[in-house]
Design a protein that fits this description.
6-stranded antiparallel β-sheet, 12% strand, globular, 974 residues, 43% helix, 40 helices
């Protein structure tokens, strides 16, 4: 065991707690039963079988109120793996559930036996026919697919609010629609073809001209049965009319029986049935979509009304005017949205009865948009609008930033309301539709029903299509609260069906919580046909039993998950999964959601239980050590949950008192540490990479891998011993070379100025000279200590840099330009909580500028570009995302190259200072997709603006990255 290996028990939750009713039982502390693990490993390979209790728990939750712990998790790489798992399940009488993003709201992504991860190895987009179609793999997010289509002026039809996280496989399997899709742009209407695997293992490509012939040979019984069901349905005019009528409004409850009416052959019928089947009829391995035009001219308004029914009553007028989206938000939703960055703070004071409509018109050109705006103006004249707080203007705008803010608030509905729920309560998301003309009536009835059952739900939805969502919070561990929820559901489902002939699931699919009410909506005849369809396609019941179809009238009350209170920074999490695609470790160990899920399971357990102990043993590496700490999860989370900050807290809790003292001593003596580090890097050129790699490997084994960095051959040589000479009197800004640029030099073999020399030269060339203080050595942005959770060392350096910067800038009269984005972020924002009160006042007087902003805004307009390279690829860093200056990177790159490419899969490189040297496997995993894009073609330049991130990308791609400011200096050199 390494000398300074942390004690896993340091993170054991404190305090007395009552074991939760849904806790993982002690018997599962050892994870997957050995025979199951070994048999699947023999079939697939051990690396594809996840079997620890940590693996099982982190896959047990999705965005729904349900929780089912699988027996084993399989990470499938290809169709052969899918077929092998299905064959094994048939032979052993086991059950299989497929899971991609886990953003499902009704438990569709959960199983109690074999759970198959079909996200990790199933990503890819191929644009076809100049954008008219797109071939997409099921683990690809909707946002990623639309990024690929945008250059062609095309977009997918489905546009769910979870597009940043939800994947194509889930969108099609649930027939998810979203803000604008309605009944005409959803998956059922826009899928051109599918490739899927039937429960038997048969693979069907519906685009293959010979697909029906091949299927009839492989599955004659299935083909005959499908055609028989088709004939039976078509022979019943009343049933046929009922099926057609049910799909005139949004409806994802049950199987698409209209597939039997729309498809002429067995393959065509199966294509329709697979859409919305929720993984119960087969695995969707590939989708070809017919895409839609991307109308780029947009006009949007957020309009406030005195009540929910009055807002709903206005919806038909905007539909008639041609609005592409009319979104409804009630007062609870609007007030909860203040937790979303950018939402006006005065919304917190909105009256309870207030409601709003988010109305949007889109057009291919300005003339068409102006026509829409004129119609909208006519509608506004007839409406009873209110302006209860100062930020409300009730006006249409074309401003992209304002529009993005409106949509951010709307899309955060579930997470914002869920984040404001009472601690310890479970969140239920309901989703129903009524004929749009009856929406106002349905709103009034819903409000009355909620009040009668003691709920104060938040309501929002796609009002243009008569589709509403509402959220209920209750304590799943309290039987009386579960009974109250059950009584409400009975009354709500009867109201929706009997009063409005509505859909009990408009776009979230049946899942587990509406399965018991399927027959209430569809009647016995249609429901029987759905059961027969399932039995025909999956006669052994291998795929996702109890999802869509369940004869248990109380099935929706089984598996409800408790949400025990965790650390305050993470407690608002409702496990939606929006954070997962941006997380650098999501393909290596755990995601932000999974880190919180695992922590909650510890708190469900009795103190010292075998499960808690096992989770703690695995949590150190899986959650704490392999978190990059970049906090991009905070940006992705609608309510700003910073799981990276929580992991830094946990790192601190694992530190011994001696480690904290050493870290503080290092901060106090950083001048000597900095000089020593530079000398060591300089010596590396003489000693050689192989020797240093061997020495650091031995040290990591003896001390601790998370404390001793591994020497990497991509580490550059030392920076020049002296910083460039500058003069204070003429300076218009103070330039702070970050410690990383005082220690490490530029790319190997690069001839020309160092980064500090380039910044000084560029600034002088533009007539905006800068000054470097002579005492910068020994100062740092404090990120070194902050990222590792060394509290005292962080405090020492945070206060030192602020005091120094205040003096250098003459009390804040000059701006402070920082030449590494992460250091600019650290000094501008991250140091603040660790400052003394006096130094917070000094910090408030500072203006900290990222060198990208300085170069793009102050220098570039004053410079003459004299030469360009042909192409450049850029790596926007996570710090740039936090600082919102990624656009400056591309602007500067455009001054240096004729073509600038931002990889579609660009993300955090996870090098994170030295974390990429502590855990090289983290950077390798985080950069894999971006690196594949970068190395797929040659570029003349590879540009970024953070030395450690550049090193990480060097290692990932084998290409040489450098600061864009070095490229700008060459491009503008006389």
């Amino acid at each position: 065991m390494p000398l300074l290996e942390p004690n896993p028990q340091a993170l054991r939750p404190g305090g007395r707690r009552r074991p939760a009713p849904d806790r993982v039982p002690d018997l599962q502390a050892q994870g997957t039963p050995r025979h199951l693990r070994e048999e699947l490993a023999a079939v697939l390979g051990a690396e594809k079988v996840l079997a620890t209790v940590s693996d099982l728990v982190r896959y047990a939750s999705d965005a729904s109120p349900y929780r089912f712990v699988p027996q084993v998790v399989v990470v499938a790489e290809d169709i052969d793996d899918i077929s092998a798992v299905l064959s094994y399940a048939h032979g052993k009488g086991r059950e299989v559930v497929f899971r991609a993003a886990g953003t499902s709201l009704n438990g569709q992504a959960q199983g109690e036996d074999i759970l198959v991860d079909v996200r990790r190895h199933w990503v890819g987009v191929e644009v076809l026919d100049d954008g008219a179609r797109a071939r997409i793999r099921p683990g690809t997010t909707v946002v990623r697919a639309n990024v690929a289509l945008a250059p062609y002026g095309r977009v997918l039809g489905p546009d769910p609010a979870s597009a940043v996280a939800c994947t194509i496989g889930g969108v099609v399997a649930n027939n998810a629609s979203g803000m604008t899709a309605g009944t005409t742009r959803n998956s059922y209407r826009t899928v051109a073809s599918l490739t899927f695997v039937l429960p038997s293992g048969t693979v069907v490509d519906t685009a293959d001209p010979d697909a029906d012939e091949e299927l009839s040979r492989a599955e004659p019984r299935l083909c005959a049965g499908l055609l028989a069901l088709k004939a039976e349905i078509e022979a019943d005019p009343e049933l046929t009319a009922r099926i057609r009528a049910k799909h005139t409004i949004k409806n994802t409850n049950g199987y698409r029986l209209d597939a039997f009416l729309d498809g002429a052959t067995p393959v065509e019928i199966l294509r329709g049935l697979m859409v919305g089947s929720e993984g119960t009829l087969g695995f969707i391995a590939e989708v070809v979509f017919d895409t839609l035009p991307l109308d780029r001219e947009v006009s949007t308004a957020l309009l406030f009304f005195p009540s929910l029914p009055t807002a709903a009553a206005a919806v038909p007028h905007f539909n008639d005017a041609g609005a592409v989206a009319v979104e409804l938000m009630d007062g609870n939703t609007l007030r909860a949205s203040v937790s979303v960055a950018g939402v006006p703070a005065d919304w917190a004071g909105l009256p309870r009865e207030t409601a709003a409509l988010l109305v949007e018109f889109r057009a291919p050109d300005l003339a068409a948009l102006e026509t829409y705006e004129a119609r909208a103006a006519g509608v506004l004249e007839r409406l009873e609008l209110v302006a209860p707080v100062g930020s409300v203007d009730n006006a249409f705008t074309r401003d992209a930033r304002t529009i993005a803010g409106y949509w951010k608030a709307r899309k955060a509905f579930v997470t914002a309301v869920g984040g404001s729920r009472p601690a310890g309560t479970t969140l239920i998301t309901e989703d129903f539709a009524v004929p749009p003309a009856r929406l106002a009536e349905a709103c009034a009835e819903l409000l009355e029903l909620q009040a009668r059952h003691g709920f104060d739900a938040a309501v929002a939805g796609h009002a243009a299509h008569g589709n509403l969502h509402f959220l209920l919070a209750f304590d799943a561990g309290e039987p009386s609260d579960v009974e109250r929820y059950a009584a409400f559901m009975d009354a709500f489902c009867k109201l929706t069906v009997e009063r409005f002939d509505g859909s009990l699931k408009a776009e979230h699919a049946t899942g587990r919580n509406i399965a018991p009410y399927l027959e209430l909506e569809w009647g016995p005849r249609a429901t029987e046909l759905m059961w027969r369809t399932k039995e025909l396609i999956d006669p052994d019941g291998v795929l996702a039993p109890r999802i869509v179809l369940d004869r248990d009238p109380h099935a929706h009350l089984r598996g409800l998950k408790t949400l025990p209170r965790v650390e305050a920074i993470a407690d608002p999490c409702i496990e939606c999964g929006f954070c997962e695609p941006t997380c650098p470790s999501h393909d290596l160990t755990t995601t932000p959601r999974q880190r919180i899920v695992l922590r909650r399971e510890m708190l469900r357990q009795r103190d010292g239980s075998p499960v808690e102990t096992a989770l703690l043993e695995e949590y150190g590496y899986d959650a704490v050590d392999t978190c990059a700490g970049d906090s991009t999860c905070k940006l992705a989370c609608p309510v700003g949950i910073d799981t990276g900050a929580l992991m830094k807290e946990f790192r601190h809790e694992r530190h011994s008192a001696r480690e904290e003292r050493i870290a503080a001593l290092t901060a106090r003596n950083f001048r000597a540490v900095e000089a020593s580090a530079r000398l060591a890097v300089a010596a590396a050129d003489r000693v050689g990479d192989r020797f240093l790699a061997s020495v650091t490997t031995l040290a990591r084994t003896a001390v601790r891998p998370d404390l001793v960095p591994k020497w990497l051959p991509e580490i550059p040589g030392a920076a020049p011993r002296r910083l460039p000479r500058t003069h204070r009197p003429a300076a218009v800004a103070v330039y702070y070379p970050a410690c990383v640029n005082r220690i490490f030099g530029g790319p190997a073999g690069q001839r020309g100025p160092s980064l500090p020399e380039a910044v000084v030269t560029l600034s002088a060339r533009a007539g905006r000279p800068v000054w470097i203080a002579q005492d910068v050595a020994g100062t740092c942005c404090a990120t070194i200590w902050h990222s590792k959770g060394y509290v005292r060392g962080n405090e020492v350096m945070a206060n030192r840099i602020v005091e120094a910067a205040w003096g250098w800038t003459a009390g804040g009269r000059l701006p402070l330009v920082v030449d590494a984005s992460s250091c600019a972020l650290g000094i501008a924002h991250e140091v603040v909580p660790h400052l003394t009160e006096e130094n917070r006042e000094l910090h408030a007087e500072l203006t900290v500028i990222d060198s990208l902003v300085w170069a793009a805004d102050e220098l570039l307009p004053r410079l003459t570009v004299r030469r360009k390279v042909g192409s450049a690829v850029v790596h926007p860093t996570c710090s740039m995302r936090h600082l919102e200056d990624e656009d400056r990177l591309t602007a500067l790159a455009a001054a240096c190259a004729d073509e600038v490419v931002v990889p579609a899969d660009a993300g955090c490189c996870a090098f994170a200072g030295d974390r990429g040297m502590l855990h090289p496997e983290l950077t390798a995993s985080a950069t894999a997709r971006e690196a594949a894009e970068v190395t797929a073609r040659p570029f003349d330049a590879h540009l970024s603006a953070n030395r450690m991130c550049e090193i990480g990308m060097d290692r990932a791609t084998g290409r040489s990255y450098e600061s864009v400011l070095l490229a700008l200096e060459r491009a503008t050199r006389p």
